[in-house]
């Protein structure tokens, strides 16, 4: 095989289509295994969320009972309060004993804190200074801790990082719209039963109920809007027969009960237990929707897991057959080029260690020799650039804009200032399209003239003194835009593109050279605690996409 050229060797191996397929399959298997593990982890998270929600329902009752259990003489209410608190504690302790919780220190601490809160929780003393609104707000802290536990579960089990649209919208409904409705319905239950049990309601009580009456309508509107988005967007939940959407009207039903039992009955003749049971029934209907959504989410992950397991099995069998079939070909190919690769690796290590004087040379006569010559040319270019960089400060000698050294200092400094001011920094990476072809066609002098024109065109589109353009390397330029978000960066990028398109370089003989560029745009607001390396990587990713999509355009990085 030593007499064959590199293309001939590749043709021999690729003739069987095994190598590229095997490599791709291995990569897919690793990706699929990781995706499978993540789906299984998320399904466990949904199951934990359902268990946590069962606790939330019980703690909500404890919260509401705390408002009207201030009457120590009402033994039935006190019994309900203590019974539900005991059941909530029992559920919390069972939840704390689960292996998934014991193995997660954050969840374990949160559950322990919630247990301690309920153990020391007491109903109102019934003193005249107590206001039921204050009592309810204080008691709600236990419910808030329970919902915070659900959010921690979502974070710890990567539910909140799922980019699936339906899952993302579902989590929004479960963590925002539904809890808002529970909160207002709980006020209606707690305040209403208090007034019916005491048979006394002053003007401040009427005002409180009227505010709750309005807030129930607002909660219903938010809930309706959230579910409408879920149902209509991207095929959302239109085929979910198990979800009873009519139960969303339970918020309005509770609102109507508040009106009928209290606001329209100034004599407060209704029995508190009838009102309590009726509102509790409506809250239970909405709780059922919550549970149905969690069941749907769990089933969605189960379906993903099943599909991924089947795909993983099929792919594993295929790759096993291909590996056995191509082993001999790989061994022969490796032995034929091992010596050449070893020499090239040694040469690359010398260059990496800063030894730019020794020439890169190998004894092979195939295409490896071409690679060695190219590496030696790169070595010479690196040596020349190293000598140039020694003499440079912050100005590029050719284009007369800032150089890479300036950029390396400026970007971290701007990011640090932006963090203190809580403002974003936008980075533009600009690459002249087909610049090598331009150099090959017209020569390096024309290429240099184009670089100078492009650099000045970019600089001319920067409207603020603090904006800066640097020659990032070769035909690439970097623009730093402090206090600018993605939209502002995109506007600047589009102006730069237009300016570059208008450039014309007239050559001897009347020939005219025109240019275009590709631009990647990224804002530090795209990720939390964005570092300079991360921001450059995001902009470079957008630049790569702009070039991949056809060049002569700008692309903004999106999460």
From TrEMBL:
Q: Which PROSITE patterns match?
A: GGDEF (PS50887), HAMP (PS50885)
Q: Known catalysed reaction(s)?
A: 2 GTP = 3',3'-c-di-GMP + 2 diphosphate
Q: Which Gene3D superfamilies match?
A: 3.30.70.270, 6.10.340.10
Annotated GGDEF domain ranges read: 423-559
Per the UniProt entry, the Enzyme Commission number(s) are 2.7.7.65
Where does the sequence pass through the membrane?
317-337
For biological process, the GO terms are:
cell adhesion involved in single-species biofilm formation; negative regulation of bacterial-type flagellum-dependent cell motility; signal transduction
* A single Gene Ontology CC term: plasma membrane
GO MF term set: diguanylate cyclase activity
Q: Which cofactors does this protein require?
A: Mg(2+)
**Residue span(s) of domain HAMP:** 335-387
Q: Which Pfam families match?
A: GGDEF, HAMP
The alphabetical list of record keywords is: Membrane, Transmembrane, Transmembrane helix
UniProt name for this protein: diguanylate cyclase
Species lineage, top-down? Bacteria, Pseudomonadati, Pseudomonadota, Gammaproteobacteria, Oceanospirillales
